[in-house]
Fold this sequence. Notes:
The chain is 28% helix and 31% strand. It is built from 2 helices and 4 strands.
Amino acid sequence: MKRKVIILSALAAVVLAVGCSKQKTCRCAVIGTSKVRVIKIESGECEDLKLFTYHTPLDSLRVDSLVCTDFQFTIDSVYNK
Length: 81
């Protein structure tokens, strides 16, 4: 009985460690436009992304306000095949 508990605890720890370190793909809507940005993050939650900062050839610096989720859109199934 003790052995089963130890094995199950070890497996749970491994699953949590692997699940937490997995890269996430976030889908973010840019507030005020029809743009959608797909951003990959190493850690954290997609909902925590609020700003996207980038450089363009015409502007030195741009900042977009975002609303993000890690929920897969239906269109993702078309591009993942």
